[in-house]
Amino acid sequence: MSASSGSVIWAVRGGKDNFGLVVGMEVDLFPVPRLYGSGLYFPGEATAEVLHAYADWSRHAPEEMSSSVLLAQNPDLPGVPEPLRGRFVTHLRFAYSGATAEGERLVRPLRDLGPALLDTVRDMPYAEVGTIHHEPTAVPYLAYDRNLLLSELTGDAVDAIVALAGPGAPFITELRHFGGAYARPPKLPNCVGGRDATFSLYTGAIPEPGTLRRRDDLLARLRPWSTGGTNLNFAGVENTGPDRVSVAYAPADYDRLRTLKARHDPDNMFRINFNIPPKAGPDRSWLD
After folding, report:
1. According to the model, what pLDDT value does residue 3 have?
2. Where is the secretion signal located (predicted)?
């Protein structure tokens, strides 16, 4: 380990594969034997009511509650649960790490919106956490991903989402609630950005011109509430240029990443990725 290893490790924690390949690591685990969570699935005609209620509810959710919502047309296939088969569904997802009784109390206002097509929210062992999103894992799917970070989810923003991503939309849309510890500076420094966002909005669309136009219309309508940033895990590969990658980081962090890149990978060997190009100019090794 060289004297500069600390800076490189900082860069790897958020800079993805621009600074090398991780071939091994140790991960500390937290003792979480159980949690309260899973999903409420509402019919497409309830999307506006449910999404407005969820936006209001999320403003008061405690840090122990993680939540998201998926808007999607389910295929009419045997592998889809019968109540959801062939239907557009608004799927609320929860994971609460506190007491079951408190989790039930927190979820109740959304449960009370009306009969759900399917209610799987329950106390569960942590080993079943993958059932919360209930996404297919055996078969890959082709999609163009895009991501927008939102500073807030206002009523007007919800209306825009319902109009363009609600029933009849030819793509899926997901909102993930941020905040909590993610909004605070980490104890172990890293360059992960987007900490000023309240929500992450993701779209997954098939590469068909009409579908992509409608998706782009949605993203344009939501610009007034955008932080200007993105999360590279959901940004997709349509645009991996510096203009897209740079907004995933705080400006000072992106400048430091480019400086470290110039020092450790001046020829940009690690470039088949969301690339951070080396910074041209005088040596700034004092940053190490």
Report:
1. 45
2. none
Report how far residue 91's alpha carbon sits from residue 47's, in angstroms, rounded to the nearest whole number. 9
CATH of 34-234, one of 3.40.462.20, 3.30.565.10, 3.90.230.10, 3.30.450.40: 3.40.462.20
Q: Is residue 111 exposed (0-12), middle (13-18) or buried (19+ Cβ within 10 Å)?
A: middle
Contact criterion met (CB below 8 Å) for 147 and 201: yes
CB contact at 8 A, 274 and 245: yes
Is the model more confident about 258 or about 138?
258
pLDDT digits (tens, 9 = 90+) for 173-219: 999 999 999 999 999 899 999 999 999 999 999 999 999 999 999 99
The residues with which 150 forms a beta bridge, in sequence order, are 199, 226
pLDDT digits 0-9 by tens, 133-174: 988 777 777 889 999 999 999 999 999 999 999 999 999 999
| AA identity, residue 151 | S
**41: β partners:** 91, 118
**0.85 exceeded by pTM:** yes
Report the C-alpha gap between 35 and 66 in whole angstroms.
11
Tokens representing residue 271 in the block: 């470039």
